[in-house]
Design a protein that fits this description.
Elements lengths: L14 H14 L12 H8 L3 H13 L3 E4 L3 E4 L4 H26 L4 H15 L5
């Protein structure tokens, strides 16, 4: 079953970044498997009703980040060699983006760096609590 990507032009996040994040998240979660073919630039642009240049930019960034590889005349595929590392990198990228957004939001509502550190530390302790 092909992965379904969506974009929200009103989110304030550039569309190419939305595509990148969704592909990385799909790789990290195993929705897109190693070696799996992505839609063509033209097909994804049609599916999402966006400019093909936007999709091409996202694919170039994904290739630069080592998440996908492109074979001329064949298409773009989830990188197959080093797939465990690719998955870990994709998961790290997705988590970093989410943390950046949370810190940016906390700062925008007036919290100071130390307050944000305290909140982050409490969240880590809560989610990684060892069951005795």
């Amino acid at each position: 079953m092909p992965v379904v990507l969506t974009v929200d032009p009103r989110s304030g996040v550039p569309i190419y970044l939305q595509v990148i994040e969704q592909v990385k998240r799909s790789v990290a979660l195993g929705v897109l498997a190693s070696g799996e073919q992505l839609p063509t630039v033209k097909q994804l642009a049609l599916d999402l009703t966006i400019n093909p240049n936007t999709v091409a930019k996202a694919y170039r960034e994904l290739e630069r980040d080592g998440v996908i590889e492109t074979a001329p005349g064949r298409g773009s595929f989830v990188r197959s060699n080093g797939s465990i590392e690719t998955t870990k990198t994709a998961a790290t990228d997705v988590a970093r983006d989410a943390i950046d957004a949370a810190v940016r939001e906390a700062k925008s509502i007036g919290l100071h760096a130390e307050d944000i550190r305290t909140l982050a530390s409490a969240a880590i302790d809560r989610w990684f609590r060892e069951d005795a």
